[in-house]
Amino acid sequence: MKDIKSITIFLIPYFTICGGIYHITYWDTFNINGLSYLGVSEILKSFIYPFIGSVFIFLLNHILLNSFYNYNNLLPNGEGRNSTIGKKLNSKISINILLLLWVGITIYLYKVCKTYDWLYFGIYFSFTTSIIIERIAEANNYIEKHTSLIIKILVYIPVFSFVAGKYQSELIQNNIKYQYTINQQIIPNNKLEKIDTLKLIGNSEKQYFFTDLNNSTIYILRSDIIDTLVIKQHGYK
């Protein structure tokens, strides 16, 4: 019972942080501080999508690695990381070189990533990060049974929370896939009707957030003053 309570005490803030990462990434695309409009329950609800995505990718990687890549079998006498080659690959010098390469490649990929590239970035980042953490843990004798699995789970979920936020927000920002409404206004001086297409960015319990097709103007509407809101879809099949 104590173990269950301890796990729960850890998981609730962990899931909240992951949900917060998703929202920070998502709303930052539109230069909005989304967390200031959301409650804890709304942040936790948004965690579901990146959680499912990260679990799927994690299981896929796990299956592929077990099927096609057995580290111990690649090294002499089945000794794996305890062999001469294994010790060299996991030495402090090798780990530092790996860290430098990881930082350089990560910065480069982040700068060149486009909307549909974020999934591949997430796979790369979560996989390489978990390997580096495992190597550091092994070098300092921190690795115990099942530690590798726990490291992967702790890394994958926040990474794909970030990826989901970037991917979903850029679909809207780049006018690829979004929900929209038509805003009609009468210009008083000219008595002309102005029609604008407003993309729905998202909503909280109290507000709806819209932007125009050029992403130049943000509209924040109180939900309690909206009588009827007609939402259409663009890019959905």
What is the number of E strands? 5
Ranges with pLDDT <50 over ≥5 residues?
Answer: 71-78
Average residue pLDDT: 78
Q: Order of strands side by side in the largest beta sheet? A: 4-3-2-1-5
Helical proportion, percent range: 55-70%
Largest sheet: 5 strands, antiparallel
* Rg from alpha-carbon coordinates: 23 Å
The amount of beta strand, in percent, is 15-25%
Supply the number of helical segments.
8
Structural class: alpha+beta
Principal-axis shape equals elongated
How many angstroms separate the termini? 47 Å
- Provide the succession of SSEs: HHHHHHHHEEEEE
Counted up, domains total: 2
Please describe what this structure looks like.
With 237 residues, this protein is α+β, with helices and mostly antiparallel strands. It has two domains: 2-173, no CATH class; 178-234. 57% of the residues lie in helices and 15% in strands. The protein is built from eight helices and five strands, in the order ααααααααβββββ. A five-stranded antiparallel sheet has the order 4-3-2-1-5. Helix 3 packs across helix 8 and helix 6 runs antiparallel to helix 7 (118-139). The longest helix has 27 residues, at 2-28.
Give the structure's gist in a few sentences.
The chain has helices spanning 2-28, 40-45, 48-68, 71-74, 84-89, 92-112, 118-139, 147-173, and strands at residues 178-187, 192-203, 207-212, 218-222, 232-234.
Could you outline the blueprint of secondary structure elements for this entry?
Layout: H1 2-28, H2 40-45, H3 48-68, H4 71-74, H5 84-89, H6 92-112, H7 118-139, H8 147-173, E1 178-187, E2 192-203, E3 207-212, E4 218-222, E5 232-234
Antiparallel strand pairs: 1-2, 1-5, 2-3, 3-4
